[in-house]
Amino acid sequence: MSSSSSNRILHPAFAQRVMSGEEAAALIQPGSQIGMSGFTGSGYPKAVPMALAKRAAAAHERGEKFKVNVFTGASTGPELDGKLADANAVGLRLPYQSDSSTRKHINTGDIQYIDIHLSQVAQLVEYGFLGKLDVALIEVTAILEDGRVIPSTSVGNNQTWINCADKVILEVNSTQPLELEGLHDIYHNLVNPPNRQPIELTSVSQRIGDPYLRIPPEKVIAVVNTDAPDRSSAFKAPDENSKKIAGHIMEFLSWEVKKGRLPESLLPLQSGVGNIANAVLYGLQDGPFENLTAYTEVIQDGLISLMRSGKMVSASATSFSLSPQCVSELMPQIGDYRERIVLRAQEISNHPGIIRRLGVIAMNGMIEADIYGNVNSTHIMGSSMMNGIGGSGDFARNGFLSIFMAPSTAKDGTISTIVPMVSHVDHTEHDVSVVVTDQGLADLRGLSPNQRAKLVIENCSHPDYRGLLLDYYNRSLSQAKGKHTPHILTESLSWHSRFLSTGQMLPKE
After folding, report:
1. What is the pLDDT of residues 294-316, one digit of tens each?
2. pTM above 0.85, yes or no
3. CATH for 240-463?
4. Backbone φ/ψ region at 291: left (φ over 0), alpha (ψ -120 to 50), beta
C-alpha cells in the first residue's frame, strides 16, 4: 500500500466520501457532542478541528453562538484543544487535557470541564449517562479493501465513540507509518451490565481482540486526508531532584525484592507522563532488574530505551507519548516492536480488575501531599485546574503498590509540596502506599495517620518547611478535639492562603 493518504483509502464506500476538512466540519452542527480520538498528543484529528474552530470564530463574529462538547481519550494537541479553545468553540470538555489555552478557559469558567477517571469515560457514554453522542471524529492510519481500519498512534476510546455515535468522520493520516498494522488489540466483547463478562487478560503481552477498528460504512459521513504529525514534546534531561527521586524508588524496589514481596523481575510497571516519571524509567536502565514488563497508559521514551537495552520484554498501553527524537528513531522501525508492544482501548489499559489481577506497580506524579498521605494531583491552590486526574486513580486504587512522587518544593522554593492539608483531594490516604520526594521516601503501608504524619514530615519535607510542619502537627495533637487525624482547621489551609496573598508559603520574617 502506498504511504500517501489518497492510496490509504481502499474500501469503495469510504473512498466515495472523501472531502476537505472544511467540508467535513460543515457537517457538524452547533451543540453537537463529539467523541474525538487522541491520547497524550497522539492519534488525534488535526484538519477537521481546525476547520471547526474557523467556522466557530466566523459564527461568533456574526453574533451567532457556536459551541460543541468535546470528549476524547485524554490530552490532544494544539490543532484540536488549542484552536477550539481560542475560538471559544468548546462548551464542555472531558476527561483530561494539558493544553494551556484550554486550561485558561476552564479556569475562567468559559469551558465547563468534567474530570473523570480514564477507565470510566467509555462506560459512562455506553451507559447513556453523558447524553447522546452525535459524531465520532477519529484519526486512522489506513482503510483496507475489506473495510478493516488500521488505528493510529493511540486507541483511547475510539471504538466506543464509533459504536455510540450517530455519525463518523475519519481523518486518514499519511504521516502515521503503515507498519502500525498489527500493533493494536481492540477488544470488542464489552457489553453493558448485567451481561458483562470477565475480561480474560492475564498477562501483559496477551492479545484478546483484533488489530482493527470496526466501523460500519453507513455511519461514515466524511473521510478527510491529512498529513500532519502528532504533537511530540521533548523530555527534559533528568535534573538532580528527579535523579534523587528515581534513586529512592530504585532502593525501595530493591528492598521489596530482598524482603520477598516482589519478584526479581518486579511486577508490571505503570508510569504517569512527565519528566520525573521518565527519569524513573531511565533509572531502571541502570538498576538490577531484568525481564521487566509494563501495563500502563502511555509508551514513553524511557520504556522504549528499556526495550532497546533488553531490560524490558513487553509493554501494554493505549498510546504513545514520545519526544521528537524518539519519534524519528522509533517509527521507521515500529514494525519490529509488533510482538513487544500492544496498544489497547483505555477501557482495557486502565481497567481496575486487570490492574489488580496483574499486580501493577503504579508510579504517578503529584502536585502536593499532606502529612497524612492524601494526594492532590489536579488543582493549583485548591481551585485552579491543571490537567486532570487522568488514569492515576485507576492505578493508585487498584495497583499492587501506589507510589506518588514530586520534588519537595516548587516555584523556586516558595511552595512546599508537603503541606498540613492538601487543598484538593484526588487520592485519599487509603489509596497511597508510598510518597517520594527528593528528600526521601515514606512507606505508609500499615501505619496509622499519626505514624504516617511523623514519617512524611521526617522523610519527605524540605528542611525549610520541616520545622513548620512539625510545629503544626504537634500543636494539632494538643488542640484538635479528635486525635485520630488531628488538624487545626483554622490553620490547615493557611499555607495556601499565605501563598495567594504573599507569593510564598513561608511566613515573612
Report:
1. 999 999 999 999 999 999 999 99
2. yes
3. 3.40.1080.10
4. left
